[in-house]
Every structure is written in structure tokens, then in C-alpha cells.
TrEMBL record, chain A:
Entries under Pfam families matching the protein: PBP_dimer_2, Transpeptidase
GO biological process, one term: cell wall organization
Name of this chain's protein: Penicillin-binding protein 2
Matches recorded under InterPro entries: Beta-lactam/transpept, Beta-lactam/transpept-like, PBPA_dimer, PCN-bd_Tpept
Domain Penicillin-binding protein transpeptidase, chain residue ranges per copy: 160-494
Origin superkingdom: Bacteria
GO cellular component: plasma membrane
GO molecular function: penicillin binding; peptidoglycan L,D-transpeptidase activity
Domain Penicillin binding protein A dimerisation stretches: 52-139
UniProtKB/TrEMBL annotation, chain B:
The name this protein goes by in its record: FtsW/RodA/SpoVE family cell cycle protein
Native source organism of the sequence: Antribacter soli
Record carries keyword Signal: no
Any Gene Ontology CC annotation: cell division site
InterPro entries: FtsW/RodA
Bilayer topology annotation: Multi-pass membrane protein
Length: 500, 535
């Protein structure tokens, strides 16, 4: 039997070899694939098991991980657990859920917050040796808490967004979207994370309309209206039309342009009227400056037609239209369409038809004008500090585009000052401060106009460029213009910046 | 090997000393250091200090291991010196992992219970000690051949009795009596090994020699197929009734393996494999629950299965993958995410925290135990002992293959657990009994025979040939034997007496007259006068 025992022993070795191969196959060859499997919760658990870095605004951790005694080890807490404080920053922080949902900075800077970024390899090596837990890095934002708070308060219960940019650098000082959500309810460690998310994702936000008919906002509370929603820019786009005109060399602010009572859209029988059917000019002519000051639609529609689609689109794209940004969250691209019919081109001259913009985009237009024609790339992350508070990444201001010349910028500044001084945007005036702005009232939905105001101040040495959008223009019928409703919000944000 | 025991007067002086089992003592220290170190590291990681029960586990494990070591020195001094330390190491690492999952309770409650598991380890070691103390010769179990058969069949059938068996994880391999639960298959495998050894040692010639040769394979006669048919039927009954391919494979593989050992006929293996395969395919085609388990095995990532039926195996794969090459470290992984990580899936838990390197190490320790068992089977002189040791070693290898193969998807998942490591009293008890049997058989195998060594007849210092029971083995082989004798000069001067440890000598007991103990192909098996023959 010894021969068979020896043969059996060979069989046993073969069996063990099979087990070793199958184990190696799983743990070595296929391990990467298994680790990345969407059904594998270990990644989330592992990240939760490590200390996730905080998101810091002005020294305050608006998102932080707190040690808890459950399977995850840490609970993500927003706004120190205060629902309102959490909501003020929610569009920026986003949320980090154990269900795998993740948004905002939490998503865009996940690798640093979780400590898994490639540039943290030295830290991880140290931790491996010392046996310490992996520590995530802190993400310090450019937001100014006072400006953010002012924008939040000024927006009140209205549906809309506010973006404030430092023109010289591109630093985003405020980014607010309302209504928003409390990230704390999405970061729970039980089933409510899912149910709360589904409730928010499916939530319809009814909006008031001029005729009282039922309507919902196309955007829910999870949408960041400041960078993720586009609207007709309305009259604020007249800044781009004006820029294209002046850049063409054919126009100055004092150039007389046609400003008829009505304008027949080319190729159609549709008569365009001015806001409220008003007359821009008794003579049917007015300066470009005056046309912008009172926001004359017929003048700008005709100007748009004169300049043509290509000139307008080139100018729009020079301001950042048709492009996405990583601020570091990905923005929705503002759009200026191509190959439009002549009537649609005419409409884009006044920010309707084939053009749509995010609030961030219109703040960038104002910021470029404020910064002598140089558009800086907007950014939210000032720096990233590792667990030892050493700065491992610092954002330095970057030129994004140069849409207009300094002289064009100066000309547009004068025109925008006129808008606030004695035009459609007087509500944005601040005593002793030269505010340059532009109003806008767009018809995304005729029943509920979208109200805009974009501005910068002080005009001589701009510290901030702001864009305000309000979705719910239908709430107060004849008062509903960007100048009346949106301008005061921009004014409060500017004041918050100037009183820093 | 230090103590020099005196030879019994009148008996042959065998030039052997009673081993002091220094190697075993040294290996035990290594095993205990590794085990206690693992428990300590679990504590450091989980509670930031010594884990609760640290001293109980340390002292208990050390005490019992030491007690078994001393017991072996007195009761089985020639027994294999590697098996005990290897098994203690596996117990220690298993205890550390059960403790690690137990300590997770604050975050993630599991039925892992290190205290209870440890109690069973102690009890199982105690049982092994008692068995080693009272069982002086494994051959005395040969008379229980048919008792063992009945016990085995009853044990296998127990989970099928309504009210007694309850499906866990889809497999009915557990029985419940009051607060106690039991995996009868663990004990049945011992009973069947004893039965097969006893049955085959008696009938091996009939099974081996009769029959025709077809295509180079010696096929048995139809009337000799009876026993294999019975075992085949039982195995398929287990497969269908308990829906557990593992247990079924365990018993049938054990039988075919031992049949091959006994008859040395590959034809039996061929017949066995064909029968089992066709039976399994038949069961698969007829029974829905067998098909379901095969589906889970083949397509665990099927979206319809992954949250339900295949959840456990997929989680196990994720755990293993998470461990990667070097593992997360004790207490640093998430083995508790896998259902039954402390028992059925302790392999994936160990893989997650100790990595591929750790698992390959553990597999090697198991391989060492199995291979030592097979070596002892080669070394032992009686046919019953050869078959029993070979069968027990092989069934352990089979069980590892079935359990780990199930987790790593070589075969469908089974309800059996990893010997010595998984939490579970029946598994610990049964496998420690296997260890005790292997140790007892190895003691008999290595114990110097009371027979004359071949060379001693031809050596320069010839000894008197005493009352050797048989002269047949005493073939004069001059070459190496002279060297043997020279290598131990002066031994003949030792007073006789060591054979007080020797086996009861006599032809009926089948003491082998094979001078090259544990070695040569020419082993003469004298298993009862009827079967004497040289193979």
C-alpha cells in the first residue's frame, strides 16, 4: 500500500496546489477587479473607517468627520450639525453618503479628503510604518463666510442662486443656491440616507406664476443652480452683445443705434416689443450706452442681427460660453448655439432664443469687464492641507480667457455704471460706492420670468463681481424685473464684500 | 532524542532511545508565540491593549499544549513531533480570528464568541488527551469495524430527520438538540474511516485481484461492487437530501481514496469518479435546489443572486480581494461583512487580514499535517493502521479542498468548516480526535520494533535473535545495515528494557517485520496470518 500512499500524497499536493492557485487568483490576479466592483461596500466602509478630512471655510469646518461607534467609525457632520448652517454651504460641500452617493467638493476632492490621492503617498507610507490610521486632508475653500451668509440671507426663500467672484483672481467668494438640502440627512448611516435622498431627488418645487397656473421649477433641491442650471440670460446678455459691438471697432458707447418701438424679427412676422411695450426713444435712435442703460430690446435685437451670429458666438465663447469648468466641481456649460435662423440670432442679442447661461457664467462676464478684460478662471479650493496642516496644494490664480480689450472693458464699465446710476438697476446703488451692473428679465417660462442682475464694484477698483438669478419671477407680477428684485440681492452681497 | 531507555531483559536490544520530543517542544513554543502574538495584535488593534480574556487564552492554550506534549512523552513518545505544534498553531490563529470578529460586536454584532470557542478548544484537546491515554493501540479499533459503519450511517442520516436537522445556508448539515447544535458529518468521517479501514483490510485481496482487465484497467467483479454502490447511494442521498455537495464529496472521496489505497487498482478510482460524476449530474438535472447551488457557484455576480443567494460567497471574494498580497493586518480589515466569517468563511476572514501570504502559510501548515499523516501511514506496519492513517489524512485534505474550494469557487459552496480554525464545537472535537488517532498511529509506526533490524544480523556486532514473532522479514541485507550498526557503537552495551513501550508483539497483531521502517517498497504486511503476503 505504500506505493498508493505515495501516489495519494501526490494527489493531496495537487489538491493543495489547486487551492493555492485559486486563492492567488482571487487575492492577486482578480483583486483589483473585485475591489472596484460596485457591489463591494468595502471601499466606502474603508473610507469611513479612516478619518476624512474637513472642508474648511474661513477657519470653520463646514463639513467634518466625527468619530462614532458604529460600523463606519466616523459620521460626516455638516455645519456642525446645524441644518441651516449646513444648507448655506450645501451647494458647495455637496454630501457624502454611505449609499455611494457623493456630490460637490466631497466628490470633486474625494481623493484628498479620503487620503487616497496619489500626492499623499508619503503620508500613507508613514502611516503604514507608524501604524496610524490614514488621515484625510483638509480642503480650504475660497468662500468668505460673511459673503456666503449675506447671499443666503438676501436670497431668502426665493428660488435662485448667487455667485460672487473676486475679479482679479477668480476666487469664488460666495456660491449659494436655494432651495437646497441639508447634507446631514443624506449622510446618515441607516436606511434614511436612501429614503431622504430619494425624497429630495424626486421633490417638485412649485413656483408661483403670473396667471396663477400650476408650475414646478425644472430644478430640484439637489441641483446647484449656480453652476448646474442654465437659464436664458435675458438682458444681462446685452453686455456680451455690447462687447461684441465695441470689440468690432464699429461702435462706441456713444454710437447711435436704431431703437425702434417694435422690431420685426428677420424672416418672420413676429414683432418684438420692448419690456412692457414701452418706447425706447422718441427718435427711434439712441446711443449704445442709453440702449443698455434702459435695456432696450429692439435696439439690441437689431444690433445682434447686424453683428451676426458668428461675432456674437465668438464673443460669448470668449467669455466662457460653450465650455465647462472644474471649479473643481464640473459646471454645466452655458451655451450659444450655432447655425441659427436669423430671428433666433436676433433674439440672442437680448439673451433669448439660442443662448443660455449659468449664474456663474454671468458673474464671469461681469468679472472680466471688471478685470480690464481679463477673465480669471473661477475656483473654490484655496488650498489643501494634509493632516499635519502642511499645505500640499495651493491654487494660484490663472488667466482663463481674454474676452475683451481693456478699452472695451472701460467702455462697458461706463455703460454699466449708467445702468445703476440712472437706468434699470438703480436698486443696486450703494452710497459712496460706484456699482456697475446690468439687469435682466428673461422668459424661460412666460408665466414666470427669470430675473437677473449682474454687477461689480467698486467700479474703479473692483473687489467683487456678482450674478444673481431668481427663478420665481412670477411671484409679484408687475414688480417682477431683475432691476427690482435681483438687484437688491446683489447690492447686499457687494456690501458684505466691501465691509469685510 | 536524549533519554536512553533500558531494554527489557530477554528482548532484543533495538538500539533505539526514547525520544525526549525536543523538536516538538521547540515547535510548540514557536506555535504558541505566534498564536499569543496574534491574539495580542488583535487586542492592540481592536481595543488598544490586551484583549479581554488574553491571559485565559494564553495560559489555557499553553497549559493544554504543554500537557499534551508531556502526555505524548509518556504515552506515545515516538509519535510524530510536528503534528501537535502545527495543530496548536492553527487553533491559536483561528481563536485570534474568532476573537477579532467577536470584538467587532460594538459595531457589528455577530454570533462569534471567542470564549465559547476557546472552551471547545480546551475540551477538544482534553478529549484528544484522554483518547491518547486510553487508546494504547489503534488496532484495537479494528473490532469496531461494523459498529463504526452503523454509527457513520446514523450520523449521516441524522440531519435528514425532521425536527432534528435544520438548513443553514441552504445546506442541511446541522442537527439541533435543545441548545446544542452539531455537525454530524465531522464525526461520521471518522466512523467511516474506521469502517472503511476495517472492511478494506479484510476484503482487499478480493477487491484487488478478482475481475477482468479492460483497456488496461483491472475492473472488479460485479458482485464485489456492492459496498461501493452502498457508499455511492449514501453519498448521493447526502447530496440530494442535505443539498451539500461538500459532505457528499467528502464521504465518497474518502471511500474511493481508501479503496484505491487498499487495492492499488486505478480501476476503482475510475469507476468511483464516473459513478459520482454521473450521479451528481443526475441530481443536478432532477433537483431544483441542486441547480440553484450550481448557479450560485457559476454566476455569483448575477445581479439577481448577488444580493441574496450568492451574497455570502461574493462578500467572501471581496474580503479575500481586499486582503490582497499582504492583508489588512489583524483587526484592520472588514471580515465581519461576510456572513459566518467566524465559521464557514473564516478562510476569507483570514485572507482579508493576513493576505495571500498568510493564507499560503496556513495552507502549508495544513499540508504539513496531512503529509505527516500520510508518511505515518507509510511508516506504520499494519494494514488497518495504514488504511486508517491514510484515510484520516486524506479526508482532512478532502475537507480542506471542499471548504476552501467552495470559498474560492473551485467547486460549489459547502456547509463544512475549516478544521481547527472555524468556530464550532463538533468540528473541533472531531478533528482533535483525528489528531489523536494520527499521533497514536505514528507512535506505533515509529516505535522501534521488537523485531530484529535486518542489518543487525549481518552487522559487525551481531545480536542474538530473540523471540521475534516471525523470521520472514529478517532478510540479511548487509550493505547499509553495517553502517547503521557502526554508527551506534556501544549501544549493545545498553541494558535492555526499552521495549516496555513497544507494541504487543505477536503474529496475530501483525507487527511488521520490515527493517526499513517507514521506508521501503518491500514492506511486508503481516496483518493476521491469513493475509500474510509480500506485495
Amino acid at each position: 500500500m505504500n506505493a498508493t500512499l505515495r501516489r495519494l500524497s501526490t494527489v493531496v499536493i495537487a489538491m493543495f496546489m489547486a487551492l493555492m492557485v485559486s486563492t492567488t487568483w482571487i487575492q492577486f490576479v482578480r483583486s483589483g477587479e473585485y475591489n472596484e466592483n460596485p457591489n463591494n461596500n468595502r471601499k466606502i466602509y474603508a473610507e469611513y473607517g479612516n478619518f476624512r478630512g474637513p472642508i474648511v471655510v474661513g477657519g470653520e469646518a463646514v463639513a467634518a468627520s466625527v468619530a462614532v461607534d458604529d460600523r463606519y467609525g466616523y459620521q460626516r457632520v455638516y455645519g456642525s450639525g446645524d441644518a441651516t448652517r449646513a444648507q448655506i454651504f450645501a451647494p458647495v460641500t455637496g454630501f457624502y453618503s454611505v449609499t455611494g452617493n457623493i456630490s460637490g467638493i466631497e466628490n470633486a476632492k474625494d481623493s484628498f479628503l479620503s487620503g487616497s490621492a496619489d500626492s499623499l503617498w508619503l503620508d500613507r507610507l508613514q502611516n503604514l510604518i507608524t501604524g496610524e490610521e490614514v488621515q484625510g486632508s483638509s480642503v480650504v475653500l475660497t468662500l468668505d463666510p460673511a459673503v456666503q451668509q449675506a447671499a443666503w440671507d438676501a436670497l431668502g426663500d426665493q428660488k435662485g442662486a448667487v455667485v460672487a467672484i473676486e475679479p482679479a483672481t477668480g476666487k469664488i467668494l460666495a456660491l449659494v443656491s436655494r432651495p437646497t438640502f441639508d447634507p446631514n440627512v443624506l449622510a446618515t448611516h441607516d436606511d434614511t440616507a436612501t429614503t431622504n435622498y430619494e425624497a429630495l431627488a424626486n421633490m417638485k418645487l412649485p413656483t408661483a406664476t403670473i396667471d396663477g397656473s400650476a408650475a414646478n421649477s425644472p430644478y430640484g433641491p439637489l441641483t446647484n443652480r449656480a453652476i448646474g442650471a442654465t437659464f436664458f440670460p435675458g438682458s444681462t446678455f446685452k453686455l456680451v452683445t455690447s462687447a461684441a459691438a465695441i470689440e468690432s471697432g464699429q461702435y462706441t458707447p456713444s454710437t447711435q443705434i436704431p431703437a425702434p418701438d417694435t422690431y420685426l424679427l428677420p424672416g418672420t412676422s413676429t414683432e418684438m416689443q420692448n419690456f412692457g411695450g414701452e418706447r425706447c426713444s422718441a427718435t427711434g435712435q439712441m446711443t449704445l450706452l442709453d440702449a443698455l442703460r434702459i435695456s432696450c430690446n429692439t435696439a439690441f435685437a437689431q444690433l445682434g442681427t447686424t453683428l451676426g451670429e458668428d461675432a456674437l458666438r465668438e464673443q460669448a465663447e470668449a467669455f466662457g460660453f460653450n465650455d465647462t469648468l472644474e471649479i473643481p466641481m464640473s459646471t454645466t456649460a452655458s451655451s450659444y448655439e450655432a447655425d441659427m435662423s436669423p430671428d433666433k440670432v436676433a433674439q440672442t442679442g437680448i439673451g433669448q432664443g439660442g443662448v443660455k447661461a449659468t449664474p456663474l457664467q454671468m458673474a464671469m462676464v461681469a468679472a472680466a469687464i471688471a478685470n480690464d478684460g481679463v477673465l480669471m478662471e473661477p475656483y473654490l479650493v484655496q488650498q489643501i492641507q494634509d493632516s499635519d496642516l502642511a499645505v500640499i496644494e495651493e491654487t494660484s490664480p490663472k488667466r482663463y480667457k481674454t474676452p475683451i480689450s481693456p478699452s472695451t472693458a472701460e467702455a462697458l464699465t461706463q455703460m454699466m455704471l449708467a445702468v445703476v446710476n440712472d437706468g434699470s438697476g438703480t436698486a443696486a446703488q450703494i452710497p459712496g460706492v460706484a456699482v456697475a451692473g446690468k439687469t435682466g428679465t428673461a422668459e424661460d417660462d412666460p408665466r414666470q420670468p427669470t430675473l437677473w442682475f449682474t454687477a461689480f464694484a467698486p467700479a474703479e477698483a473692483p473687489e467683487v463681481a456678482v450674478a444673481v438669478v431668481l427663478e420665481n419671477g412670477g411671484e409679484s407680477t408687475n414688480e417682477s424685473t431683475g432691476g427690482r428684485r435681483a438687484a437688491p440681492i446683489a447690492q447686499q452681497v457687494i456690501q458684505a464684500v466691501l465691509s469685510r | 532524542m536524549s533519554g536512553v531507555a533500558p531494554a527489557e531483559p530477554g528482548m532484543l536490544q533495538t538500539d533505539e532511545r526514547v525520544p525526549a520530543r525536543v523538536a516538538e517542544a521547540f515547535l510548540l513554543v514557536v506555535a504558541l508565540v505566534l498564536s499569543v502574538g496574534a491574539i495580542w495584535m488583535v487586542g492592540e488593534s481592536m481595543v488598544g491593549g490586551l484583549p479581554p480574556g488574553f491571559w485565559t487564552y494564553t495560559l489555557g492554550l499553553t497549559g493544554l499544549a504543554l500537557a499534551l506534549h508531556l502526555l505524548l512523552r509518556f504515552r506515545a513518545p515516538y509519535a510524530d513531533q510536528v503534528i501537535l505544534p502545527a495543530v496548536v498553531l492553527l487553533n491559536g490563529l483561528g481563536l485570534a480570528m474568532v476573537l477579532r470578529i467577536d470584538l467587532e460586536d460594538a459595531r457589528f454584532a455577530t454570533p462569534a464568541n471567542a470564549g465559547r470557542h476557546f472552551m471547545w478548544i480546551l475540551l477538544a484537546m482534553l478529549c484528544a488527551g484522554v483518547l491518547l491515554w486510553f487508546l494504547r493501540d489503534h488496532r484495537s479499533w479494528r473490532k469496531y469495524t461494523y459498529t463504526a459503519m452503523i454509527a457513520g450511517i446514523v450520523l449521516v442520516m441524522l440531519p435528514l430527520i425532521p425536527g432534528l436537522g435544520r438548513p443553514i445556508n441552504g445546506a442541511k448539515v446541522w442537527i439541533f438538540i435543545g441548545p446544542f447544535s452539531l455537525q454530524p458529518a465531522e464525526f461520521a468521517k471518522i466512523a467511516f474511516a474506521v469502517f472503511f479501514a476495517g472492511y478494506l483490510v479484510t476484503n482487499r485481496d478480493t477487491l484487488a485481484l478478482a475481475g477482468r482487465k479492460v483497456l488496461g484497467l483491472q475492473l472488479p467483479r460485479a458482485r464485489d461492487l456492492g459496498p461501493i454502490l452502498v457508499v455511492w447511494a449514501i453519498s448521493l442521498g447526502v447530496l440530494v437530501g442535505q443539498t451539500d455537495l461538500g459532505t457528499s464529496l467528502l464521504f465518497f472521496g474518502l471511500f474511493v481514496g481508501m479503496l484505491y489505497l487498499a487495492t492499488e487498482r486505478g480501476g476503482w478510482v475510475a469507476i468511483g469518479l464516473v459513478m459520482f460524476a454521473s450521479g451528481a449530474v443526475l441530481a443536478w438535472s432532477i433537483f431544483g435546489h441542486v441547480q440553484r447551488r450550481v448557479d450560485i457557484w457559476l454566476n455569483p455576480f448575477d445581479p439577481e443572486l448577488i444580493t441574496g443567494a450568492s451574497f455570502q460567497i461574493v462578500q467572501g471574494l471581496f474580503g479575500l480581494a481586499h486582503g490582497g498580497m499582504f492583508g489588512a493586518g489583524w483587526g484592520e480589515g472588514m471580515p465581519y461583512l461576510v456572513p459566518y466569517a467566524y465559521s464557514d468563511f473564516i478562510y476569507s476572514a483570514l485572507g482579508e487580514e493576513l493576505g495571500l501570504t498568510g493564507l499560503l502559510g496556513i495552507l502549508l501548515v495544513y499540508l504539513v499535517i496531512v503529509e505527516r499523516g500520510l508518511r505515518n501511514a507509510i511508516a506504520v506496519r499494519d494494514g488497518f493502521g495504514k488504511l486508517l492513517a491514510g484515510g484520516l489524512a486524506f479526508v482532512m485534505a478532502l475537507q480542506l479542498f471542499v471548504v476552501i474550494g467552495g470559498i474560492t469557487r473551485i467547486i460549489p459552496l459547502t456547509g463544512l468548516t475549516l478544521p481547527f480554525m472555524a468556530q464550532g464545537g463538533s468540528s473541533l472535537l472531531a478533528n482533535w480526535v483525528v489528531v489523536a488517532l494520527l499521533l497514536r498511529i505514528s507512535d506505533n509506526a515509529r516505535r522501534p520494533s521488537a523485531l530484529p533490524m535486518r542489518g543487525q544480523l549481518a552487522g559487525p556486532t551481531p545480536h542474538e535473535v530473540g523471540q521475534g514473532p516471525s523470521g520472514t522479514g529478517a532478510l540479511p541485507v548487509a550493505a547499509g545495515a553495517a553502517r547503521d550498526a557502526v554508527a551506534v557503537p556501544g549501544r549493545s552495551a545498553n541494558p535492555p528494557g526499552e521495549s516496555s513501550f513497544g507494541p504487543p508483539a505477536g503474529p496475530a497483531d501483525g507487527a511488521a517485520a520490515d527493517g526499513a521502517a517507514g521506508g521501503a517498497e518491500t514492506t511486508v504486511i503481516v496483518d493476521g496470518p491469513r493475509e500474510g503476503g509480500t506485495r
